[in-house]
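Worked problem 6 (solution included).
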Amino acid sequence: MIPKECKRLAEVDFPIAVVSKHAAREKSIRHGHPSTLHLWWARRPLAACRAMLLALLLPDPCDPHCPGDFKAAARELLARVQGVGPGDADLRSALLKFIGDFAAWELSTNASYLAVGRGLVKAAHGEEPPLVVDPFAGGGSIPLEALRLGCDAFASDLNPVACLILKVMLEDIPRYGPELAEEVRRVGGEIKQQAERELAKFYPKDPDGATPIAYLWARTVRCEAPNCGAEIPLVRSFWLCKKPKRKRALRYAIVRAEGATPRVEFEIFEPKADREVPAGTVARARATCPACGAVLPAERVRAQLAAQRGGADPVFEATGNRTGGARLLAVVTLRPGEQGRCYRLPAERDYEAVRKAQARLTEILDDWARGGKKGPCPVPDEPTPAGGGSGAGRAFSVQRYGMMHWGDLFTARQKVALVTLPGLTTQIAQRKDELSEAVRTAMAVVVDRCADYMSTVCVWHIPKQLVAHTFGRQALPVTWDFCEAQLIADGPGNLQGALDWVARVVDSWSGSRPGQVEPADAAAHPLPDETAHVWFTDPPYYDAVPYADLSDFFFVWLKRALPGHPLLRDPFDPHNPLTPKRREAVQDERRETDDGRRKDRAFYEKAMAGAFAEGQRVLRQDGVGAVVFAHKTTEGWEALLSGLIRSGWTITGSWPIATEMASRLRARESAALATSVHLVCRPQADGAPVGDWADVLRELPSRVADWMDRLQGEGVRGADLVFACIGPALEIYSRYKHVETAEGRQVQLPEYLEKVWEAVGRAALRQVLGTDAPNEIEEDARLTALFLWTARSSNGFSSNHKGAVLRSAGEKEGSDDDESEEDEQPRSRAKGGILLPYDIVRRFAQPLGIHLDRWEGNLIETLKGVVRLLPVPERLEKLMGRQTLRELRRLAEAGAQEEAMQLSLFDFEPQPRDPSADEQVRLARERVEKETWAHLHRDSDTLLCHVHRAMLFQKQGMTAAFRELLFREITYRPQFLRLANALSALYPPASEEKRLLDAMLLAMPK
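Solution. The predicted structure is:
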């Protein structure tokens, strides 16, 4: 056993860089990965969980209290996979290397590494496996890795969908292993055969033998312009395929007959250039009529679609002709003997199949009604989430378009298919033993996977030629055009694929004892006191992810696939037809708590404090805890940390682990936050001393500086580094019962964190400008340097003309392919510059004497909580002055176009020099340059202004002014060169400012 006094590895060291590499890469791993069993949002990478768990479970060999038996056993075990040096420090290094290596996905099922990992845990804790507890288990990454390492795992969550996922992963798969996979394939195969027989008439093959694999639909509205009334297909893009040599797209013609409404007719063609493909008909919820060009405003588009309950199904008259509703644009097929996807226009047989599906759905509902409506309606009739407002409500918009019930998100054919599958499962899996129950549960997961690819929120992914699933983002938006996957064909999003994904996850499990899963409120944990050896969790973060509302999409189908299942209910409200919302620990001001209060920020923070207190209660006195924070706002971070410390925890370690790949879109085009910080903590010792404020402040700067050096050596940069430094700083503060000033005043955490931000800012200034004394460098230079330093990403800083903005690692961004474009207000044209959240800028500015209001409109621009660092071109008039610009324009108008300064910094193209240029023009230009410099130069001007002017002078070819400026600055202010070099190192490598600075520095006299 590990003595209470002995530090764990996670409290002294951790292989940040290696684990980060494996954690970020893990998102590209698909087949057999547990995350592919069932969708869950904001999952933690298994690599990070496995590595952190091992570091929490193992003692530090260099600690004097580390048991000798463990050190001897560890040497013997590690020798099986790597070398180990003779000393305790060598053993620590070997353990850290093993933890980093074992984080690789390829080694997670390697027999040798598994044996060593489990052997190390056993050597540290004895024959009785340690218990790992996760009260916000969600997708199950933490308890799953605990089982992999030979621990016992207790996983709980308030959400029934999460609990069902956890049951399959932590109980059923470990208990039955390969036998479960075999049964899933056997039963699934029988279900697929029966489904093909029952559903074939709804998915007919083509006469030439081609098999439709996807149907591309568009919702429609009517043009309301006078004398038009044409049907407008709502289409974002008319492209079908952009692959080389297989480019396909739709184009349309308007058919006009006297006395008849204009009609839009489509054809499929092979475009030679992008401009041949017509523009989409809808953007920001406004529809443009292809017949008359009139624009239907967003409120009318919403009203028309609301009247159609979303408009996902075509409407037919009694004769069978389509009269409105969704319009089939094209059918994607596979032809025998041909490679790749083929496309054709819809035929009458396609609409006939849909009519049959609508008739069959009516039969199903009538049978249910005639049977006394026993059980839930076969088609989900539970309400969809109400959207709008701020926070979690912004993730949902379907009710605005008439989709008031979950069934409205599916076409009639999709409903028939999804209703059919659970019935077939019940018929085929007849046995009543435990394995059969596990098979039924796994088949319910298969139904959910099918539903994810069979809703009217799915779109056709043009680059990959696949069906994009419902949750491309952590939201449920409307999609104007959508893709209907063919359930029983050999194509994307089909039933066979869902079966394969689930079976592969079962196959890939390396074997372990089963875990224990229980639905529970994290603030009222079911375990008794002091039972957990490790309390490790990744809690929800304010309103970042509306888990309950999102999971209702799956819950309504699980209820029907597993009627009466004990996990699929609200344990606190038996009348709630959906997942629990009142006690869910998220900020969602649309909802109320059990006692009628709004679920605002205060509710969330109180709920988290309760969960932290419960963690303290269930953890053994010799145990250790860890909390993952994916930072989003500084205020949020501070509130959660306050709750953690008030609950009696002491921070003993802090490790940032990258969770995003540098190659992803946001990492390439923004300074997106890339890491999640893992805070290691322990219950505060009885009799903790009172800290002296002066002693704490003396220790803080060196602690922050040392930690910054360590993190930068591990590749952590910018805002990632800032947040990661808060953990080590809290180690100082939280070791005391409380901290007092010399006058006896108790120092609260917010006041201490202000000092932490100041220490980080000063350390950053010392790194980039060579000084941490604010008076040595003017405010605007400090602001610019700190802004650029903070905006750097751990993935490497890159920027483009759209700027860079920070986003939480727990959030997921949308792309052009999954964006609904439904906002009523048009987006403003993207401006240049780099962006940071206002609260981050304010945090580092205030303690360093930077007054943001002083630089508003001159150096920065603040809008809706985001600060933009203005590009140098936008400072042109302020730097050059209106009088100078007018004089330079006058010269240009005088006929010296090729000699006059080009005013646009980024559009400048050097003109060929005319050897016969008028000497008077040359002299006039030189005079204006000298007058410009004389007029602009003021001793009160800041150093940054002169650096920016020098960049502009050099760029515009103002040689005389450029030389005058450099001579004076280099002679009288040596800080000029230091600042220019610092900014050159801070600006993004591909930015125009970086190029100009480097050109300016090269032009300086040696």
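Discussion: The mean pLDDT is 86.
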